[in-house]
Amino acid sequence: MQAINSNTQARSVNLPWRLIVGLGVILLLIIISYIRSPQITTAVLSSTLRQSTPIILGALAGIFCERSGVVNIGIEGMMLMSAYMGFMFNVWTGNLLLAIVGTLLVGALIGAFHALMSITLKVDQVIGGTVINILATGLTGYFYQQGLTTSGKLQTITIPVLSDLPIVGPVLFTNPPITYAAIFLVVIVHLVLFKTRWGLRTRAVGEHPAAADTVGIRVNFVRYVNVIIGGMFAALAGAFLTLEAVGTFERGMTNGRGFVSLAVMIFGKWTPFGSWGGALLFGFANGVQTQIQFLQSQLPSWLAWLGQIPNQFIGMLPYLLTIIVLAGFVGRSRGPAASGKVYSKE
Amino acid sequence: MRKSFLGALLAALLLPILVACGGSSTPAAEPTSAPVAAEPTAAPAAEPTEAPAAEPTEAPAAEPTEEVAAEPTEAPAAGGAPTDDSNCADEAVLCVGLVTDVGRVDDKSFNQSAWEGVKAAEAELGAYVDYIETAAAQDYANNIMLFAEKNYDIIVTVGFALAEATAEAGEEYPNIKFIGVDQFHDGSQENVVGLIFNEDRAGYLAGALAASMSQSGTIAAVLGTDLVPAVVAFKEGYENGAKAINPDITVISTYHPGGFASGFTDPEWGATTAKQAIDQGADVVFGAGGNTGNGALIEVAGNEGKYCIGVDSDQWETVPEAHSCLISSAMKLITPGVTELIKAAKDGNFPSGVYYGDVGLAPFHDFDSVIPAEVKAKLDEINAGLADGSIDTGYVPAN
């Protein structure tokens, strides 16, 4: 009991320090490894950012929905469906910009569908999300045909001058557009959520809808809009897969990324920056996991034991790391109080 | 409090499994109407038995009728080939069924190559052919049973993972011939044969080609799961083949960590991994692992001056997005192998145990002029050496 009390009192002083020390250690490690091997460090960090992109976009989708009180377990399905539609728009129009706009509209539509189910029709929100997931796997699997080709995918944009910097340049300033967008969106969502009237209303509706209602906020309207925005974020994650990263669609190609997003959102305590940290951690663990395998044949003798670990265990690294950090550093994580509860006026 | 979170995490982790199981149940309702519209002449009596589609595994079975409908010219050419599987029990009617590994029959890889072999048999022997796409690993036995219970004469099962289910079905149905693509069978059952390949040899050729074409001295391999011995054989062969050309070469290779569930169906992982390899100097990437490998090939295609090598079939035909980097593919000649075995089964000289199919490099296509003549000569020499046993790939099977 005492520990908890002192913790809450000292929180305003404690937290930034922890964060600064944490970031400092990470930075130091990056510099050390950069000195040892610039190429590998850059490769792993690029991979980190790339792998974190769909995850953070999915997590932002989740944040919008859950902060306004709607549980969205259907992010995976939204991603998959919009990945498919994005690919098809690209096939039909041959214009990547149109394809992205179309994908966002599809995302908004699926979001509206989820909102309709969970707000107006008062379907259990977990069931509603599951319906979207199953529907997405089924529909995309059935309608997808092999052999469709597109005119291309989003290309890397190199930002002049900045991209010439060591480490930072190739990792942060040599990326395709959706990856840049994801970084900006983290900041924008943070500002919207915590610095604007709309953000305040969203959080009020998610924490205590009855109270929000009494001060004149239209609870269900706020929820509808947020779930639709959430759908568009999930759609951007899907667009990342088919229009930017791979360039083609494959059945089930999201491979659980939507669910990882949900975990990352909880990891980040329903905040954009926290979730981004989680997504980067996940991406980093994946990059390291690949790198350990790459180097297996040329490890120095003191690290040779790494090569003996079965790949399946190395494959667990991202999940293991997430659990360790979650249990050890992030601590208890509590979602918006009204999340998952249907609101109806009395 | 933490407990409730762990519960949520557990639920989140369990959900993909639920989705994977339920996934194919949705389209089940749709295809039933399609064949009727497409081919009104198809004996309607046969259809209704499939219509209930209570199990998700049955759903894809409705699709092949479209296949038949699409090529109406082929059926009469074969001399009144059967148009449905209602009288497979009849000795005069040859029915061949194919059960895919998890994935689709048009996967641009394994399942597709085997299915093309079956279709070649359809054209040559006038057989009735059909396939079932497996949605999840626990359906293997059920899907084989669906064909067996309709008295199919030959059942082709595609993929290492179906070996056990195939052997069990062979035990239960001694009158049906089973062809297991990529499966090892010990020969104790006379009606079961495994069509296997020396993947290490195909990989060895790919490695030799990669090392010959590399400028940087670093080459990479992006692979499916190492739970499949064929993938391991490709990798070991690739590494040793590369070292045979250039002993100092650095080979960096990675297996997909996801196991059977996602090892071959994760193109974004393949693409990211290929990028990570290119970022650290690799200039030839071997993509071996279904759609995961295809993702790697497409990623390499976006990088100028880098080469990629495909796997299993000639991927020039199957992954057009990779044309700008694809110098060749390490092929397992699955299609002719399957056709050969089906013919053997019909002619009564069906082998048992294992049957070795051929391997080789696919044509160089656009890169024919880029690859120096001495490299081609060297590859021919290696190919001959592998065939007569004078070159050892250095791959030792685990079992």
Q: How are the SSEs placed, and which strands pair?
A:
The complex is a heterodimer of chains A (346) and B (399).
Chain A: H1 2-36, H2 38-67, H3 75-93, H4 96-120, H5 125-143, E1 157-158, H6 168-172, E2 174-175, H7 177-195, H8 197-207, H9 209-214, H10 219-245, H11 257-267, H12 272-294, H13 304-308, H14 311-315, H15 317-330
Antiparallel strand pairs in A: 1-2
Chain B: H1 2-22, H2 33-38, H3 64-70, H4 74-77, E1 95-99, H5 110-125, E2 128-132, H6 140-149, E3 154-158, H7 163-172, E4 177-181, E5 192-196, H8 199-213, E6 218-223, H9 229-245, E7 250-255, H10 259-262, H11 267-279, E8 284-288, H12 290-301, E9 307-312, H13 315-318, E10 326-332, H14 334-347, E11 353-356, E12 359-361, H15 373-388
Parallel strand pairs in B: 1-2, 1-3, 3-4, 4-5, 5-11, 6-7, 6-8, 8-9, 9-10
Antiparallel strand pairs in B: 10-12
Helix pairs in contact in B: 5-14, 6-7, 8-9, 8-15, 11-12
Q: Notable features of this structure?
A:
heterodimer; A: 346 residues; mainly alpha; two-stranded antiparallel sheet; 73% helix; globular; disordered N terminus; B: 399 residues; alpha/beta; Rossmann fold; 6-stranded parallel β-sheet; 6-stranded mixed β-sheet; 15 helices
